[in-house]
Amino acid sequence: MGRFAPPLLGLAAAASLGLATWAADQGPALPSLPAHPLGAVTPAGLLAEIIPDGAQNAEQLRRGQALTIAGDCMSCHIRDGGQPFAGGLGLNTPFGVIYSANITPDANTGIGAWTNEQFYRAMHEGVGAHGENLYPAFPYPWFSRASRADDEAIFAYLKTLPAVKYVPPANHLPFPLNIRFMVKGWNLLFFRPHDVQADAGQSAEWNHGAEIVSGLGHCGGCHTPLNFFGAAKSDQALQGGDVDNWVAPNLTANARTGLGAWSVDDISEYLRTGRNARASAGGSMAEVVSYSTSLMSDQDRRAIAVYLKSQTASPDRAPGTPDPGAMRRGGAIYSDACASCHLENGVGQPRFFPPLGHDAMLQQADPTGLEHLILAGGRVGPTATRPSPLIMPSFAWKLTDDEVADVSTFIRNSWGNQAAPVDASKVRTLRRRLGLQATHYTANSGDQG
Amino acid sequence: MTVTLKPVDAVLVGFGWTGAIMGQQLCDEGLSVVALERGPWRDTAADFATGFAQDELRYMWRHHLFQNVSYDTLTIRNNTSQQALPMRHLGSFLLGTGVGSGGVHWNGQIWRFLPSDFLTKSHNQQRYGRNAVTDYDLTVQDWGVTYDELEPHYDTFDKLCGTSGKAGNLRGQIQPGGNPFEGPRSNEYPTPAMAQTYAPTLFGQAAASLGRHPFPHPTGNLSQPYVNPLGAQLGECTYCGFCEKFGCGNYSKASPQTTVLPYLMAKPNFTLKTECEVLKVELTADRKRATGVTYVDSAGQEYFQPAEMVILSAYILQNVRLLLLSGIGEPYDPSTGKGQVGRNYAYQTMSSVNVFFDDKILNPFIGAGALATVIDDFNGDNFDHSGLGFIGGAYVAGMVTGGRPIEMIYTPQGTPAWGLEWKHAAARNYLRSFSISVHGSCMSHRGNYLDLDPTYRDTFGRPMLRMTFDFTDNEHKMSDYLTDRAAEVAKAMNPREIKLNRRTGSWSVVPYQTTHNTGGAIMGDNPGNSVVNKYLQVWGVPNVFSMGAGAFPQNAGYNPTGTVAALTYHAAAAIKSQYLKAPGALVQA
Amino acid sequence: MAGTAGAAVAAARHDGMLGGPPQTFTGAVPWQEGAADAPPGVSGTDFIFFTSAERAFIEAAVDRLIPPDPVGPGAVEAGVPFFLDHQLAGQFGQGQHYFLAGPWSKGTPQQGYQSRFSPAQLYRAAIPAIEKYVAATFNGAAFSKLAAADQDKVLKGLESGAINLDGGVDSATFFAMLLQNTREGYLSDPIYGGNKDMAAWKMIGFPGAHYDYKEWVTRHGERVPYPPVGFKGRPGWTER
Predict the structure, then answer these.
(1) Do B50 and A398 make contact, defined as CB atoms within 8 angstroms?
(2) Which of the four pLDDT bands, split at 50, 70 and 90, describes residue A53?
(3) Dihedral (CA of C93, C98, C99, C103) sign
(4) By the CB < 8 Å criterion, does B272 face chain C?
(5) CA–CA separation, A246 vs A288, rounded Å?
(6) Number of domains within chain C
(7) What residue in C sits closest to A445 (Cα-Cα)?
(8) Same domain for A297 and A331?
(9) Which of B153, B213, B516, B570 is flagged as catalytic?
(10) Helix (H, G, I), strand (E, B), or coil: what is residue A23?
(11) Domain count, chain A
């Protein structure tokens, strides 16, 4: 199995080859320290390994690597504590839990025995090796935009990775969705394989951005709202969607809830480091940054930014007016519980703790993302240049549903923000879904919970 | 049944500051590294988040982050005529455990020792005569390493932490606003000094009026956001006043968690195992090489971890104990003066002056671990000791680490400890008082040492470490002299009254003083006067390195962490540039 | 040492107090949604440790250690007896962070706590021993029935160690612990059952669990306006 010298980790990564190899390549041997090869490689490290010039079909493999990064295959095809690309991650869809497949080259449990044609059909038509229909949690509606050559490059690259013998769990879907055949009907209704056609009226950069965003990058998989059947609403592309108890924010030019106020540089920096002066990547976006956008080239990130900045602003809706009592209580909670990082006046510490004023994420019509963050906490995606996860702690134990709602309403309507007030019952529902408990202490303490 | 694991290049015993730094340095060289930590995993958001970190009862008084002495403690006594008894409850020092260890619950006071501190014996002997370093049975000696050799490594640690401060000596040029007595620095501090609250400001003004040279305390509580060379990010301190004994909730205190772990944990050649207690360093039959370590995990399983290098990166008391338990080196015998392991245990000589105002609201709860204005005029050999009858000194700091009310309600001289009078004094003085800290050196002494206790054993059946320690006349004289200097500044602040808390009598384990235990595995220039060489490499067992303040031949009048870190980087540099090419003794005995 | 060390650690650590299971970390800083080592505050309002006789002694004693008056609450008003009760019923009382194995010896004052008792055992042994001394000295009276001046006299005798107690209790050791625990209850976060309504914090001017004072650092001599807040909030969080 070919393995390549990883670039980002410097000398350290050479250890995965064993010290003897490192010594042969790089300088004098270490006489009495025998090589102790390591079994482990980090997911980002694996993706960042440099494909050496000498490798057979190096060009194709490099392209396959770049496309695998752009497609963010890792985020879904690794489970907690699992091996890269071995799958087994449970994806919570509105219809049930779907487990990602093993796409390592293991012959029996992975894609080792697949042919180019089978891989192409999976990517392009959503059909598995044995002709079965794959669930659209696998984003083939976007992947179908990739060319046959691209698919072959990805396939060739995946086949160079370490094979892992692992069978993911069976899916948990209610009848009749547990019948893969049902997906056929879904495909007829919603799936249109993309045409690969450049827009001659736009720059090459824009077109490249479009290719990533609407193709392998499958941004709309989360950022475009879904209809009742779980298919993207094509007339509301990139206007924001919900995914797994988070909100994927609006990426159009909407000044309040979208990227209207962001510059191309802001977007590029966010995709590269997981953080910029305005926001940090949390929730599922943290993984997208760690395993995909931070590993892309600067050109790819810039192209995405240019394309996103060209999106027409979504229509704005007038938010409701917050209750003065909720604002007063929320302000008190904010000062005591949030100012430690976001500071008394909400200015935060840019690139560390996001400033809260004029914040798109906070002003989404659906406050689920904010509630999720307050209840469960959130981690900023670690990247090679900015490895600190800067985790926002969980406040589920500390704040009651009413308190979460009040402080959210306050944050959504302070420092230039304007968004609908938050209802405590929504918080209660989300808390239950996340399985998080409030802690109640003795009434002697004044605990109102 | 002991399970033998796959060999690694290096095993780290303990995972606090020195383990994290050494892990990063060795992993960057491509070595496979395993860290064994006896406590649990810990990190900011789950273990000391802003929503509950400021819990004086839980952390300070119930020892939630500290070593649990119920299954492993040490025995203590003031001198060899006493029977050593177990330290049954933490007091005088608060030992760390868990990932980050003391680096999690330290104050963030980042100091460099003075150039003359590394030459304690030769410098003082030259200036004050031979008796100055042998009176009172002192056993001080030179370090075998100089300030100039360590300076680049102090600088590296400053850059790792983003230390906030103001240089007083930049490449030989004295800088206004800094400490004019410090050794030359190659660079200004990475971030500016913290803003000072009222009490340290008043202290600085009073000190200046007396002709002293006040400057802001160098601190790992950051004055502004910072990205270190590893890409790790630290936030800006919000002065919550819960540093020492607490973890920092908003990423603004330098710790292994904030400065190293985000980088190190992502290394594929690094593995951390928690709840794993190392029992012993295993040696070859000729005892000239370590083969690895034996440890037991909290599930009760014993393992042998073979390793090319063993890095003792636990706290000094644990490192010294492991050396003794493993039969490395010769144990020190105070009656003959023979043997090196355990010799020259020292501590820190603390005293303070409380200052009470009527007319000034000081808001002591606005604090930070190293928020202070300091004078260094009477530290080390910054002043003429002729005729004073002691060597060493202290920094004197108008310091406000916080206003935790169970610990830090100061009441005037003569106030009873309870009753209405106490309550009224608390209500009257809490906002209007503060403490001047006198942070004194502690010279080594023939009778102060560490060895294995003959009676008491820990849960694992191993002998406990036995500490024999008392302050010597040198320390008492130094401390009295320095406490008087602090009182001068206190009086110059024109308060209503002051209270002197002198260091009197024998060392007691009861009141908290400071967790600056030093010595026992000291460094030096030959095996006849030390356990490790200048690269912290054990004499005679060249693949064992012993990190930490155990290497200090005696303790200077500063907090140890800066010097501990510099010694670690210094050792790592030698391992990388020399040892890996030719594993063996880095200094010929 | 081999096998026995393993067995010993398994027993010691699996009592639920010392550490968790061994873990191996590689590849990333671990984190889990919702993870929080939330403080072990107490629930309910019932006493669960003290007998009624013990409670009578404790209430009388702590109210002499910190008596009520208009300046601020007394220890009873602040809930200190309830705090002590729950501390002693919990891990502190069981001596979670005390080394209690033998052999035992009185030692020097510098060697600190040398009792074989856990804190709960010390209270349990000390209170009847004190009541026995009080009954013998004050015509059979209970401590709680003594005049305040006599109560203070007893407390001073305990503080100095001048009173000798039965049952292997060192009076000065017990007094030091009682005074320390009383202050803890008076001044700790109210989730532990004392410092009711944060009244002790109000009395001294401590804002409690507030975290950001950045704007106040250089406002020398000014009163900081934040009202005290505990981990579970303050009235301003919920006032309709």
Answers:
(1) no
(2) confident
(3) negative
(4) yes
(5) 14
(6) 1
(7) C190
(8) no
(9) B516
(10) helix
(11) 3
